[in-house]
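Open question from group meeting: does this chain pack into something compact, or does most of it stay loose? Before anyone orders reagents, we agreed to write out a predicted structure and look at it together. Recording both the input and the output here so the notebook holds the full record.
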Amino acid sequence: MSEKLGRWGVGPLFASMSGIIITVFISIHYAFFSDFNFLLPRAITLSVGIFLAIFGFIMYLLSSIQLHGKFEEKKLITHGFYAFSRNPIYSSWILFVIPGIILIIDSFIGILIPIFMYILFSILVVREEKFLEREYGQDYLEYKKNIGRLIPKFF
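Structure tokens returned:
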């Protein structure tokens, strides 16, 4: 019996577990390392952080809208942000939103959050990939071969 995944796949599980990771690291930051900040001028960390967070949130919204629109049609999405990453919703948070917030709050220890989120993502996304292989067969395997899991393949 094959497992059926809903529209959001393992996203809700990823989000709730990431929330725990974020809470733990931010608590550690404020409890023990609040004096350890980035060695860059505050204007730079704030500006870059705001840019990353806004870009990531826009990427998340557009990717979510694309997914929502095509889910009922049962079509593999390979355009938009999905032309660069097989998982742009996760990418938006791991690579842009969370690092942006870390820069905004100036949390040096926060650098570990995306690393732990990536490890969690790598474990959970396998379930989605197996489902997509069963659902879309050779089309998904070809897409998987050409498009990176989280970041674009350049060669």
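Observations to bring back to the group:
The chain has five helices and no strands.
The longest helix spans residues 42-71.
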